[in-house]
Design a protein that fits this description.
Layout (H helix, E strand, L loop, with lengths): L1 H18 L4 H9 L6 H21 L9 H24 L1 H5 L9 H10 L2 H18 L3 H30 L5 H30 L1
Keywords: Cell membrane, Membrane, Transmembrane, Transmembrane helix
Protein name: Arginine exporter protein ArgO
InterPro entries: LeuE-type
Length: about 210
């Protein structure tokens, strides 16, 4: 049991180190929290819908699939293009967003799922660091796997819900111009990650 608790503690620390770094999900949370304090929870739900089957695949021995070069290239190119598209969509909707009138093409849960599924580094992380953690709890069966997944998701949920709540409660104090600038920043951040994914995929290809 002490080993299991130590493993869950390491999961908490590793998860926090990942979720605290600005990335596509963070930028998405900032933009969607203009409209609801539950944006963070909705994004995590989309994230879980993608992550759960990946965790199960790794548990049952398919971690190597996510390390295949052609899989990483395909996800890097397709994911990069999609994330750039979503980032440009944010920039285009900046004026409506500043007035709390933005109408997004994809709902928040779907967008959260897309940010996970189309992020090649997310899959590589689970095929390496994540697979190591899964192996550590494998002796405890599905109960240990469930504890690992729940710990990881609670960290994501706590941080993104905090961000979402703060943004929702304070964004009206920023002024429309500041809100517009923040929205542009989120869009540019997403587009930058998209470019980075594409470049990474092309490097693997070449």
């Amino acid at each position: 049991m002490d080993f299991m608790l130590a493993t869950l503690l390491s999961v908490t620390v590793i998860s926090f180190s990942g979720v605290l770094m600005p990335g596509p999900m963070f930028a998405l949370t900032l933009s969607r929290s203009y409209h609801t304090p539950w944006a963070g929870a909705q994004i995590v739900l989309g994230h879980v819908l993608v992550e759960l089957p990946i965790i199960l695949l790794i548990y049952f021995g398919f971690a190597g699939f996510f390390e295949l070069v052609w899989v990483q290239i395909l996800l890097s190119l397709a994911g990069g293009i999609m994330i750039i598209y979503m980032g440009l969509g944010m920039i285009k909707a900046r004026r409506e967003a500043a007035q709390d009138k933005a109408n997004f093409k994809y709902n928040t849960v779907v967008s959260g799922a897309a940010m996970s599924a189309l992020n090649p580094f997310f899959l590589v992380w689970w095929a390496t660091v994540g697979a190591m953690l899964v192996m550590k709890v494998s002796d405890y069966g599905l109960g240990g796997l469930g504890a690992l997944a729940a710990t990881h998701w609670l960290v994501d949920l706590a941080w993104l819900c905090l961000v979402s709540f703060i943004v929702y409660r304070t964004h009206r104090l920023w002024g429309s111009r500041v809100r517009e600038i923040v929205f542009i920043g989120c869009g540019l951040l997403l587009a930058a990650f998209g470019v980075y994914f594409i470049v990474s995929g092309l490097k693997l290809w070449l």
